[in-house]
Design a protein that fits this description.
Layout: E1 8-11, E2 14-20, H1 22-39, E3 46-51, H2 55-62, E4 70-75, E5 79-80, E6 83-84, E7 102-110, H3 114-124, E8 130-138, E9 151-155, E10 161-162, E11 178-181
Parallel strand pairs: 3-4, 3-7, 7-8, 8-9
Antiparallel strand pairs: 1-2, 2-11, 5-6, 10-11
Length: 189
């Protein structure tokens, strides 16, 4: 994709270029909602959104889901700056009994897979009927753990991204498109 100056933005001290257009996101969410509506009809699933990054994805998806379902939010932090810390804090916010329930995890991005592995291990302790992993983005080249989403809207390269809920130290979540960090221009000598 050729970039114009309007496709380059600055978040904190880094430049980012438009990577995934909001219209492509909407189109894929519409298809995902259709699949979920079919697969989980009459199953009363619980959507479990992982904060903070999945909030836009969750809101847009659930506007199109028309089956009987509930929603809950959990929080797990694993990023500082542009790198995964590899550490997790306690799972916060799980305030529903999910025993015997069909759980649909809504995640913004699966990077190394550590966060998802941690969350699945915690959820399996409460004996759900099923766990379905749904992610807006997946970076297969960055995976260090065998975590395969049931649904992934976009497979991306191992680039740092912001926008549509994803952030850089808290900034950029409100952007309508997804942007990837600009690579420095090669120095030709």
């Amino acid at each position: 994709m050729e970039n114009s100056k309007l496709d380059i933005i600055k978040v904190n001290n880094l430049s980012f270029e438009k990577y995934i257009d909001k219209e492509d996101i909407k189109k894929n969410i519409k298809l995902l909602a259709k699949s979920i509506n079919i697969k989980f009809e009459h199953k009363d699933p619980v959507f479990l959104a992982v904060l903070d990054g999945s909030f836009m994805f969750t809101a847009d998806l659930l506007k199109r889901v028309n089956i009987h379902s509930t929603l809950s939010f959990v929080k797990i932090k694993s990023y500082e700056g542009t790198e995964s810390t590899g550490n997790h804090k306690e799972l916060i916010g799980l305030d529903k009994d999910l025993t015997g329930k069909h759980i649909i995890i809504l995640e913004d991005i699966i990077d190394t897979g550590l966060t998802m592995k941690y969350l699945i291990n915690e959820l399996n302790k409460i004996n759900p009927a099923s766990i379905t992993i749904t992610s807006l983005l997946i970076k297969r080249d960055a995976l260090k753990f065998n975590v395969e989403p049931d649904f992934a809207l976009f497979e991306i390269q191992n680039d740092f991204v912001v926008g549509y809920g994803l952030d850089f130290d808290g900034y950029g979540r409100n952007l309508k498109h997804i942007y990837k960090v600009c690579k420095p221009e090669p120095v030709i000598s």
